[in-house]
Amino acid sequence: MENILELIKEGILGAISIYSILLIIYILMSWVPASRETKFGIMLGKITEPYLGFFRKFIPPLGMIDISPIVGIFALRFISSGVEAIFDLVL
User: Using an 8 Å Cβ cutoff, are 59 and 68 in contact?
Assistant: First the structure.
């Protein structure tokens, strides 16, 4: 049973890490003109924009700077820490 819970924990943490990397790639793509219009950029936008859109509802851009991705990445780190704490209590 403990091995199964450990696998679940590692799977959740791995998914969060992968999603964080996808967010960072999407953010960096905004620095390169027309990179978000590529097939990869469109696919990445479909994966990341719903999550970032949630934060954009509450956090307005500061001039030309959108800080919602930073808050989104911090939220993922917070969730990751919470998942680790919960599984450490159970294991």
Answer: yes
